[in-house]
Amino acid sequence: MLSHVDSEGRPAMVDVSEKQVTLRGATAAAVVRLPGPVAETLRARGFITAKGPVFHTAIIAGTMAAKRTHDLVPFCHPLGLEKCRIEIDCDAGSDVHIRCTVSVHGRTGVEMEALTGASVAALTVYDMCKALSHGIVIADVRLVEKTGGKSDFRAGDAG
Questions:
Q1: At 112, is the secondary structure helix, strand, or coil?
Q2: How confident is the model at residue 10 (pLDDT cuts 50, 70, 90)?
Q3: Whether 5 contacts 120, CB under 8 Å
Q4: Exposed, middle or buried by CB within 10 Å (0-12, 13-18, 19+), for 100?
Q5: CATH number of the domain that 58 lies in?
Q6: pLDDT of 62-73, one tens digit each?
Q7: Considering the entire predicted model, what is its pTM?
Q8: Which of 29, 33, 59, 75 has CB 3.0 to 4.6 Å from 137, enough for a Cys bridge?
Q9: CA-based nearest residue to 108, from 79, 70, 85, 83
Q10: Catalytic choice (15, 127, 140, 157)
Q11: In the predicted model, what is the mean pLDDT of residues 138-150?
Q12: Quick one: pLDDT at residue 6?
């Protein structure tokens, strides 16, 4: 049976009231692929556009989004995140790498919060740079790892 469907087949939030409170953590990643000339321009400008500092703004937006995941994704439980850290860097080529790590002591996992934080940070990089090119691509949004609850997960593990 699907977890977000009740016994009559109607959409429903999962009841976590009987679960134990444990430390739950998750890390998600996203890649923003910039066209080469855009990456060169941004490096020359210290990753600052007319809209402001690209990475700092994306960190703020991603953090805000992670904290509001329950407002964006149906059936996500509202969680008081205890940690949200977003790291952004540009590799030697033209890829911007984003990682969002979140944690909470709670009854449900925080995978969606990590994925939302990484996704919105990536969207913000796109928004802040789109005046330079609409050829920017957001790619590889994925869960890297999750801990706590019934099982742990690390990308590349079987399952």
A1: helix
A2: confident
A3: no
A4: buried
A5: 3.30.70.640
A6: 999 999 999 999
A7: 0.92
A8: 33
A9: 79
A10: 127
A11: 95
A12: 73
Cβ(11)–Cβ(5) below 8 Å: yes
The tokens for 25 are: 């953590």
Q: How far is CA 37 from CA 11, 34, 54, 72, 130, in A?
A: 47, 8, 16, 34, 13
Name residues whose C-beta falls within 8 Å of residue 148's C-beta, 6 or more positions apart in sequence. 22, 23, 24, 25, 109
**Is residue 156 included in any domain, yes or no?**
no
Q: Which of 96, 97, 66 is nearest to 81 (CA)?
A: 66
Domain assignment of residue 74, yes or no: yes
Q: How many domains does the chain have?
A: 1
> Could you tell me how many residues make up the chain?
159
Range(s) of the domain holding residue 100: 22-148
Is the confidence at residue 2, as pLDDT, over 70? Answer: no
Q: Which two tokens stand for residue 80?
A: 């008081």
